[in-house]
């Protein structure tokens, strides 16, 4: 087939095939993953009238064990009873697509990505898994969360996407050789972790009761602050302990003014220490990231000098 695909092209810069690289859900078993890939390949063939070749790869023995993936290679020409015919619609220029009443090719690619997400989520649901994938960019997902008032999810999505390493960089990283792309991904991961810790610290702060004054007022203030966070969750243990503490005060005939005698629901000193430890940890991560970046620049300068000689 691929010999025929090459013979069908006459320009030296012709595209013979289009590749689709798919990250397969690790939650599915091998048979389910194969069925999912075959379903998607058939969708592409039906959509464009071309032939699609499938290769499914298991994770590398030294890599992430969840990295099940597939490579689909599709002909850029339609398959006819007489062999390969004209170019598929996804290969046409935007000008030619417009003449046929079609939108830009970018819309076609986005529709294919959306179809993959739909099929993947359908397979996950059918086989009893809660995980779902989203084909959209982080920016698009964040915009949707903001529109729904889900500030917590919007904050979680406010991060830079990682970069695809590719075969060469991945092989170097496995041999213990840092790469520019690998360093970028590590800095992105560190920034994401720092953001997570900051949001967790803020959540703890919102759930902390000020026991220096009226206990019921503190409870009202705490609940009001949490209620102002769309999608936020009350800390169940703290709320339960607060009810028990107030019940003990009522049973003992004491007024709200003696709230200082109630057991501390959250040790404020420990909370402050935790904030300080997280701050120091973030500073240490930033220093290490800067040092790695400087080492990589020095290695690049050394390589350039070596080439110069």
In short:
The protein has helices at 2-7, 30-48, 94-99, 105-126, 138-147, 151-156, 166-174, 180-207, 215-227, 236-251, 268-308; strands at residues 17-23, 52-57, 69-75, 77-80, 83-87. With 309 residues, it is mainly alpha-helical. The chain has three domains: 2-135, BirA Bifunctional Protein, domain 2, CATH 3.30.930; 151-199 and 272-308; 209-265, no CATH class.
Explain what the structure shows.
The structure is a single chain. By secondary structure, the protein is mostly helical. The protein folds into three domains: 2-135, 2-Layer Sandwich (BirA Bifunctional Protein, domain 2), CATH 3.30.930; 151-199 and 272-308; 209-265, no CATH class. Helices cover 57% and strands 9% of the residues. A three-stranded antiparallel sheet has the order 1-3-2, covered by helices on one side. Strands 4-5 form a two-stranded antiparallel ribbon. Helix 2 (30-48) packs antiparallel against helix 4 (105-126) and helix 8 packs antiparallel against helix 11. It is extended. The model is unreliable at 230-235 and 253-266 (pLDDT under 50).
């Amino acid at each position: 087939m691929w010999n025929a695909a090459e013979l069908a092209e006459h320009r030296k810069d012709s595209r013979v095939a289009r590749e689709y690289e798919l990250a397969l859900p690790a939650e599915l078993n091998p048979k389910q993953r194969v069925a999912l890939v075959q379903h998607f390949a058939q969708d592409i063939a039906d959509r464009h009238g071309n032939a699609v070749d499938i290769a499914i790869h298991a994770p590398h023995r030294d890599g992430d064990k969840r990295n099940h993936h597939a490579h689909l290679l599709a002909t850029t020409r339609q398959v006819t009873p007489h062999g390969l015919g004209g170019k598929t619609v996804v290969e046409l220029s935007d000008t030619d697509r417009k003449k046929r009443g079609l939108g830009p090719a970018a819309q076609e690619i986005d529709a294919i990505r959306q179809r993959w997400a739909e099929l993947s989520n359908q397979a996950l649901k059918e086989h009893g898994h809660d995980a779902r994938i989203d084909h959209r960019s982080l920016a698009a997902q964040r915009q949707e969360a903001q529109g729904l008032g889900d500030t917590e999810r919007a904050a979680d999505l406010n991060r830079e996407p990682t970069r695809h390493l590719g075969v060469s960089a991945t092989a170097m990283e496995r041999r213990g050789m840092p790469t520019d792309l690998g360093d970028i991904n590590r800095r992105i991961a560190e920034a994401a972790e720092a953001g997570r810790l900051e949001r967790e610290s803020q959540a703890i702060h919102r759930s902390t009761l000020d026991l220096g004054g009226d206990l019921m007022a503190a409870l009202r203030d705490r609940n009001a602050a949490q209620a102002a966070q769309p999608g936020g969750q009350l800390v169940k243990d703290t709320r339960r302990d607060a009810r028990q503490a107030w019940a003990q005060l009522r049973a003992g005939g004491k007024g709200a003014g003696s709230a200082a005698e109630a057991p501390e629901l959250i040790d404020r000193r420990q909370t402050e220490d935790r904030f300080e430890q997280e701050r120091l940890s973030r500073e240490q991560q930033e220093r290490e990231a800067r040092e790695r970046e400087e080492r990589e620049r020095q290695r690049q300068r050394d390589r350039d000098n070596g080439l110069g000689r």
